[in-house]
Amino acid sequence: MGRTPPHPDVSQVELQQVLEALVDPVRRSIVTQLDAAGRDLACGTFDMAVSKSTATHHFKVLREAGLIRQYYVGTSRMNALRRAEMDEAFPGLLDALIVRQAARL
Amino acid sequence: MGRTPPHPDVSQVELQQVLEALVDPVRRSIVTQLDAAGRDLACGTFDMAVSKSTATHHFKVLREAGLIRQYYVGTSRMNALRRAEMDEAFPGLLDALIVRQAARL
Questions:
Q1: Which of A33, A78, B2, B81 is buried most, with the most CB atoms less than 10 Å from its CB?
Q2: A14 touches chain B (CB under 8 A)
Q3: Is residue A103 within 8 angstroms of chain B, CB to CB?
Q4: Are A7 and A63 in contact (CB under 8 A)?
Q5: If you ran DSSP here, which 8-state letter would residue B94 be given?
Q6: Do B70 and B79 form a contact (C-beta atoms < 8 A)?
Q7: pLDDT tens-digit series, residues B55-83
Q8: CB proximity list for A12: less than 8 A, separation 6 or greater
Q9: ipTM score of complex
Q10: What is the pTM of this model?
């Protein structure tokens, strides 16, 4: 309960912060993997060639930009893509980035 | 003639380079101003609170990412938004960024 980290209201997040989160290819890959999975994923299940502490940083940046919601299930930190909220606040942005990611990294 | 700087084939530009160009708010503003004008604009006509050399750098980054085409008319360096080419290579991206820029910087 107390371990759930803070999450912003997506409607209060600036485009600048979202772009700074998504300009990083590892973070874009996390978002793409979540979208492709169509379900919440534990931090340890992502395909990422970075250290655990670097991965934790990337998840934090995404969380603070409103892109993902993090919560615990037992000892696993789970990640949910806040797709509907992002699509409402920034129409077309994730579509444009995720489609391209799939077609051309 | 020989003064026309090199321009990339937009279909060869990576999303990563386009995002690195557009993550900068000044560069996003240049793109937004070009889109709003609906015509090519000389470098000196943009509303930008940066030095001339910084502005020149920003235009260069946009040009190298395939976002704008630069050419001379007399001593004026003109800038054209490569909107159709970008829309074909990165569908929805400029729409997502320009719409948001207008609604919420």
A1: B81
A2: yes
A3: no
A4: yes
A5: H
A6: yes
A7: 999 999 999 999 999 999 999 999 999 99
A8: none
A9: 0.89
A10: 0.91
